[in-house]
Amino acid sequence: MIKPTKPIIFCDFDGTITDNDNIIAIMKRFAPPEWETLKDDILSQRISVQEGVGAMFSLLPSSWKEDITDFILQNARIRDGFREFVTFTKERGIPLYIVSGGIDFFVYPLLEGLVEKERIFCNGSDFSGETIRITWPHSCDDECQNGCGCCKPSIMRKLAKSGSFRIVIGDSITDLAVAKLADHVIARDFLLQKCQELHIPHTPFATFFDVIRVLEAMEVKA
Ligand SMILES: [Mg+2]
Ligand SMILES: [Zn+2]
Asked: Cα–Cα distance between 8 and 19 in angstroms, integer?
C-alpha cells in the first residue's frame, strides 16, 4: 500500500476532545425547557444547526456568562491521550486543526496550553445584549447550504491543499458532511455507525492513544 503523504487533520471538539457535548451540558443546567424543542428540531433537521444553536443561547441572559463559563471549566473533561496526541502531531509535522461547533468562551479556555488559538475554528459570542448572541465567523461557503454555523466542509476546502491526505476525527452528525470529504475518518459513537453504514474509510477510537496508534499504523508522512 502507498503510504499517505501530506496528511492534514481536522479534529472535532465536543464529544471528541471532550468526553461530553458542552452545549448540551450548558442547556441542561441553565436553559428553560424550550431548549429541548430546539434540540429536537435540529436533530430532525426542521431547522439548521446555526438557527437552533443561536436560538438556544438567546434563551440565556448575558449576565450569566461567568457562571456558565465556570460550570463548563469545572465539568468538562478532556479525553485521555489528547495532550500526547497534540505532541505526536507536532513531532511528525502533521498540521492539526480543531473544527468545532462549540463557542469561543468555552472552547478557547479548555484548549489553553494544548492548542494555539490560530489552529482553532469555532463559533463566537457576544455578551453585550440582554441575552447571549452567537456569532458565526466560519459560516458556510457557496458550496454548502446546510446552515452549519461553523462549517467544517468550508474550512477543509480552505485549508487542505489538493493532494493532501485529509483525516477527520469526530463523533456526531455535525461531522458527517466533512467526514464524507475525508480520505480517512477516525470515529466514535454516532459518526462511527454512519461510517460503517456508508462505507466511509474509517477506524474507531475511544481515546487519543488509539488515534496515535492509528496514525502510526498508517505511517502518515508529513
Ligand atoms: Mg462532536
Ligand atoms: Zn456548511
From this structure: 23
